[in-house]
Amino acid sequence: MTKKIIVSNIEIDINRKNIKNMYLRVSGHDGRVSISAPLRMKNEEIIKFVTNKIQWIEKQKRKFENSNIQYKYDYVDGEIHYLWGKPYVLRIVTGSKCRTDIIDDSLILTIKNDCTAEQREKLLTEWYRRQLKDKLPVLFDKWEKIIGVHAESVSIRNMKSRWGSCNTRDKRISINLQLAKRPIMCLEYVVVHELVHLLEASHNHIFKGYMDKYLPEWRGIKRTLRSV
Ligand SMILES: [Zn+2]
Question: How far is the CA of 193 from the centre of ligand 1 (A)?
Answer without folding.
Answer: 6
